[in-house]
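Appendix B. One record, verbatim.
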Amino acid sequence: MSSATTDDEEAEINEALTELRAALAVAEAKLAQLNPTSEPTAEVPAETLLSGESETIGTSNLSENVEDTPFGERTAYV
């Protein structure tokens, strides 16, 4: 606005600024309709576990520490 040399130029700039703000508000409203929540909710976990599935599956190699496992012998079929 400091570059406006006359009152008419300043009025034009203010009018254009008002139109741009209105267009921005419309665009933001449309975006809000398309994506109502941008944050994940606590109800939807990031990674859904299956029933009985543990977070520790695949975290260690059972063949290395057979004596340290809390259960008995295992047999694996490949």
